[in-house]
Amino acid sequence: MTSVEPTFKSKMTVYVVSCWILAAFGGLMFGYDIGISGGVTAMDDFLIKFFPKVHERKLHAKENNYCKYDDQLLQLFTSSLYLAALVASFGASKACTLFGRKPTILVASIFFMAGAAFSAAAEHRWMLIIGRILFGIGVGFGNEAVPLFLSEVAPVQHRGAVNILFQLFVTIGILIANLVNYGASMLHPYGWRVSLGLAGTPALVLFFGSMVITESPASLVERGRDDAGRTALQKIRGVDDVDAEYVQIKEACEQAKLIKHPFQKLMKRSSMPPLIIGIMMQVFQQFTGINAIMFYAPVLFQTVGFKSNASLLSAVITGTVNVLSTFVSIYAVDKTGRRKLLLQASVQMFICQTAIGAILLVHLKTTGTLDQGLAAVVVVLVCLYVMCFAWSWGPLGWLIPSETFPIETRTAGFAFAVSSNMLFTFLIAQAFLSMLCHMRAFIFFFFSAWILAMGLFVIFLLPETKGVPIDVMTERVWKQHPVWKKFMGDEDEKRSREMA
């Protein structure tokens, strides 16, 4: 379907690898927050201080196994971050365009450190929520700027692997959070403060890292700093002869200057393919049910019968699986391509979710617990599920939108992708415990149905983008796809530019 462009000259240098790793700490920051929330909300000291009614219900869990954590305010503690991130992502888009990726990453780290300080010092619920909002602004800015930065500074032949560093660091952040929660749960009565306060550590690394990394060449050229753009390109490629790649970036930026209003351009017919793909990848990523499991893994394992510390340890196990499996994607994404990974994972996740739902439906009643053997089977199935998500919909949900938008709508389009991710993460985080209460085991069949839809979406609508330079994606991908090429007529493109 697509042809591969010739590879531009580049060398792997210590500096460019350092840039990738330091920027990817934005992912670790995000992952730490995902992992920390569920563990903190399972800590008795935290519940007694802020959610005493939930703690009382937990003590009488035998009354209803599925509903002991069903509390809208408790869910708001987790989900409020994502509403703030949703709004912040559009401000981050403007910041990326006007000031560049590098200062936007700096701002993300500052807001996240402020959120960590506010949350760790919280004495009232409103302080917790303000802390979550500050976290959310940091996440909105970081999740907008970091994947764009990684895609733009990576050589085309390694773009998939480099971009997946973001998701790898997300999984590392989740694992670290689970380990911190496991240790902090034994520090009474302030363990939850330790868990929340340590969120500032990856943000501090990102803060200093943002001063070390270079700005992306595309961002510099886009803002009229041509000489600085060429110098940055030479620095990240490790070679002096970057003329061919520089010319391609320059031409793409010249095209972008014709577009005065990128958000209006994004609504044109010719911009629909990457926009629809970008948004749907985020919707599907959340409706796999992954964040329901990652947010609330300790809660979920308590529901099926593990004691508090055992459930936190089980969450550590799933976090370890998540990290290790992401390396599979780093290795395979630029070799096998995006579509094969997504399709294989859809089959495996569908089987796992359906099996978990069937076990809980038959064996976990309103009261009582699963026997040890079946509880262990559930943990194994969760691990198998997390495993294939980690090499597919997790990293590729961020990679594909970051590489498919042309430069004239790249920051605006990716803002829609990030905000869609945050919106549906919010909906899942806010609704999961209530859905678990009312739907019980059927919640896993609900996610299974979405996974089936995802697989069909990949088969019919998702093109392969492996090995295609970002700035020729329209010609090499969208105009060649049997469905999306109908949106890409030359006359329509010309008209769209004139009207934008």
TrEMBL record:
The chain crosses the membrane at residues 12-32, 104-122, 128-150, 162-184, 190-213, 275-299, 311-333, 345-364, 376-400, 412-433, 439-462. Signal peptide: none annotated. Keywords: Membrane, Sugar transport, Symport, Transmembrane, Transmembrane helix, Transport. It is a multi-pass membrane protein. It comes from the Eukaryota. Residues 19-466 form the Major facilitator superfamily (MFS) profile domain. Pfam families: Sugar_tr. GO terms for molecular function: monosaccharide transmembrane transporter activity; symporter activity. Its main location: membrane. It is found in: Membrane. CDD domains: MFS_STP. Belongs to the major facilitator superfamily. Sugar transporter (TC 2.A.1.1) family. NCBIfam families: SP (TIGR00879). This is Sugar transport protein.
